[in-house]
Amino acid sequence: MKRLFPVPHVIGFASSLLLSLIALVVIKFDLTFAMGMTILGVTALVQAGLQLFLFMHVSENEDKKTLFTNIGYALFVGLVTIFGTLFAMMWGYNMG
Amino acid sequence: MKWDEFFVTGEPMIYAAMVSIVLVSIAIPAGLTYFKKWGYLWNNWLTTVDHKKIGIMYIIAALLMLFRGGVDALLMRAQTAIPENGLLDGQHYNEIFTTHGIIMILFMAMPFIIGLMNVVVPLQIGARDVAFPRLNAISFWLFFFGAMLLNISFVIGGSPDAGWSAYFPLASLEFSPTVGNNYYSLALQIAGIGTLMTGINFLVTILKMRAPGMKLMKMPMFTWSILITSVIIIFAFPVLTVALALMMLDRQFGTQFFAMQNGGMDMLWANLFWVWGHPEVYIVILPAFGIYSEIIATFARKNLYGYKSMVYSMIAISLLSFLVWVHHFYTMGHGVMVNSVFSITTMAIAIPTGVKIFNWLFTLRRGKISFTTPMLYALAFIPIFTIGGVTGVMLAMASADYQYHNTMFLVAHFHYVLIPGTVFGVIAGFHYWFPKVFGFKLNERLGKWAFWFITISFNVTFFPLFILGLNGMTRRMYTYSASTGYGPLNMLSMVGAVGLTIGFILLVYNIYWSTRYEPREVTGDPWDARSLEWSTPSPLPEYNFAITPAVDELDAFWFAKKTNKSLFEGEYEPIHMPNNSGLPFIMGIAFFFFGFFMVFSWWIPAVVAGLVILGTMAYRTFEQDHGHYISVEEIERTENALRGENS
Predict the structure, then answer these.
(1) Which sequence ranges are marked TM in the entry (chain A) (predicted)?
(2) What pTM value is reported for the model?
(3) Confidence of residue B645 (pLDDT cuts 50, 70, 90)
(4) Containing H/E element for B577?
(5) Complex-level ipTM
(6) Residues of B with CB under 8 A from a CB of A
C-alpha cells in the first residue's frame, strides 16, 4: 500500500494548496503593506522550494551542480531585472 | 477595421509587391505539381526532425530574409541619397526602417545562427540529433510562420512603423492606430516562443549528449559559445514574451501598462525591451565569436590560444550582458547615479571582449595561415569589429551620449558591430561548413570576389554615417534640405549600398555555380580541420556517427589524424532515430492563422485557430511514437557507399 500511495507527494500537494490559501489572506483582510508583502514573500519562497525539491527533484539528480548553477543564474537575472528596473525607473530617476 | 483598409493601397511599389507575391504563390505550387515534388517536399523537408535539414531550412529562410531586409536597406539609402528626395513618403519610410530592423535581427541574424548551430553542434559533440528533435521542428515552424506573418504586413493592413524598438507612447493605439504594431507584438511573440524552445533544446543537448570523454572544458569553442548563447536565450526571451504580451493587451484589450496616465508608464516599455534587447545583441554575436574561433584555429593550423580565458570571458560577457541595458536610453531623464552605474558596467564589457580579440591575434601569431574565404571574413572581422567596439565605448559614456544619441553615429556604430560581428560570422561559417553538409566547397574565387565587394562596400556604406552623425544628422529622418550639407556623404553611402548588393548577389550566385561545377569532395575533411564534425563523411548520413566517437582531449580529431588513431572503436549496433512528424508544420500553420486573426481582432476565428493549436498539443500528449531503428546491415551499406573501400 505504501508503495502505491505517494504520501510525500499528497502532503506536498496539499501544502502547496494551503500556501496559496494563506497568500489569499493578503487581499481578504485589511493588512499593512509590510505585513502583506512579508506573507507573500514567505509563502512564495516556501512554494518555490516545495515545487523544486519535492516535485521537480532538483536535489536528486546526478547533475545537481548544473541545476543549481542554472537556478542561481535565474535568480541573478530575475533580481537584476527587478531591482535594476526599480533603480533606473523609480529610485534613481531624476524627477526634477 | 474597414475593409478598404485591409489591403495597403496607393503605392506603386506595394502594388508591384502584391503582383509578385501572387505570381510566386502561383508559381511554387505549379512548379511542385509539374515536377511531382509534393511528396518529396512533405516527406523530406516539411515533416523532418533531422537537425541537419532543419538547419538548412533555417539558413534558406535567413538568406531570403537577408534579401528582404536588404531591399528595405537599399530603399532607405536611395531615399536619403539626395536632399528632398520623393522616392518614399514619410509613412512608407517609417515602415521600411522598422521592418528592416526587425527582419535583420530576428528573421535574418537569429535563424542564420540557429541554422548553423542546428547543423554543427550535434556533430561537434558526437551526437546523432538534438535532445528534443520534435521540439526542434516546432521551433523552426514557429519561427518561419512568425516571419511570414510579419512579412505579409506590408501588403495586408500595413507594416509596423514605430521603429524596430517600438517605443511607447508612439507604438500605442493612440499614436499608431493601424494594425502594424499588432503584427509586431504577435509575429515576434510566435517567433520568440520558437527561439526560447531552441535555447532549452540546445542547453540540454550540449549538457547531456556529448560523446563519452568530452568534458565541458574539452568542447570545441563553437559549442561553448552556443551553450552560453542558449543560457542567455533562456533568461532573456521570457522578458520579451512578457513585454510583447503587455503590448498586445495595451493595444487590443484596453489595459494601461505603457500608457502615460492611470498609473501606466510609457518608458517601462523601453526598459523591458532593452532588458531583452541587450542580451539579444550577445545572442547574435557570441555564436559568431565561436565560429571565428573555429575558423581561425583551423586556418592558422594552431590550437586556439587561451582556451580557458575564451570560455571565462564568454561567461563574463553573458553575465554582464544583463547589467547594461539602460545605456540604450541614457537621455530618458535618469539621475546621474543611474547613468554612471550603467556607463561603468557597459565599459566593463570591453574587457572580456578585448581578451577574446587578443586571443585570436595570438592564435594567428606564427601560425601557418591559409587565406581561404572563411578565413578572410574572420580576418576582416577583427579590425572592423574593433572600430565598432571603440565607438561603442564612446557611446557608453553617458554624458557624451547626449551628443551621439539617436544620430547616424549610433547607426554607424551598431552596423559596425553587427555586420562584421554577426553577418561576417555567419557567412564565414556558411562557407566553412557548406562542404560538410553538401559534399562540395563553395568556389573560392567567387567567394573571394564576394568577400572583397562586401568588405569594401560595407566600409563605404557605413563609415560616412559616423561623420554624418557627428555633423548632427539624426537617424530615421526620411529627408533633409540641401543646406544641411548631408547630401554628398549620403550619396557616398548609397554607392556603398549598391556595392554591398553586388557582393551579396555574388555570394548567392556562388551557391548556384558551385552546385553545378565545383568538384565533389570525398574525404569529409576538406579544410584539414580539428573538431569532430569533420570525422564524418560528407554528405552526412541520417545518423551522423555510425559508431559513437570516444574523445579524450580538445581537438581530438586533429590529434587522431596526426597519430593515425581511430576515434571510432567498436562494432555497429542498431541506431535508434526519431520519426518524422507533420504535427510541427500543422501547428505552425495554426499559429500563423491564430496570429493573423488576432492582429485584426477577429476573435471568433482566433479562438478556433487557438483550439487547433491546443488540439495539436493534446494529440501529441496521447501520441505513441517510439522512433525507429536503423539496422546494422543498412548502416554497413550506407557507410560503404559514403566512405568507400578504405573505411
Answers:
(1) 7-27, 33-55, 67-93
(2) 0.93
(3) low
(4) strand B575-577
(5) 0.84
(6) 207, 231, 235-236, 239, 265, 267-268, 271-272, 275, 319, 322-323, 325-326, 333-338, 341-342
